[in-house]
Amino acid sequence: MPGDGFTLGLMIPALVLAFTGWLVPRLLFHFFPEGVRPLFILAGVATLVMLALGMVFFAVLYLAGGVSFEMLLEPGWAAFLGHMLKLGAISALLWGPVMVLSVAQLPKRWKKEVW
Fold it and tell me: Mean of the per-residue pLDDT values for the chain?
């Protein structure tokens, strides 16, 4: 089919971001104590980690697409970081709902605290 490359080109990055949104809270769970307040802090840290990962992910996609790093930095570091931050924030539409569901499932794993 003519559109398969385009569809795969969009679906694979979307699935990677969604899976990462599920995985990051699960990994952070091992470093946070149980409890409601730590759970909210974990969610905030997971959001910041996902934002940073989204920025790196899109930078890698640009580089894989043939855009040189020098070209990305041509307008300056501030413009580059601002653009990547914007893309990372937009990617929250993909990983955000998955991350919220992943965080919501974490209290099931608590052994000491009660939700």
Answer: 92
Cβ-based burial of 34 (10 A; exposed 0-12, middle 13-18, buried ≥19):
middle
Residue 3 has a pLDDT of 53
- Short-list 24, 37, 41, CA closest to 91: 24
- Are the C-beta atoms of 85 and 54 separated by less than 8 Å? no
Which pLDDT tens digit goes with each residue over 60-94?
Answer: 999 998 999 999 999 999 999 999 999 999 999 99
Rounded to whole angstroms, the Cα distance separating 8 from 4 reads 6
What one-character DSSP code corresponds to residue 107? G
Token duo for residue 55:
């920025």
pLDDT, position 114: 75
Q: How far apart are CA 103 and CA 54, in angstroms?
A: 18
Over the Cα atoms of the chain, what is R_g?
Answer: 17
Q: Which residue has the tokens 């924030």?
A: 89
Question: What's the token pair of residue 19?
Answer: 């899976």
CA neighbor of 107 nearest in space, from 38, 49, 48: 38
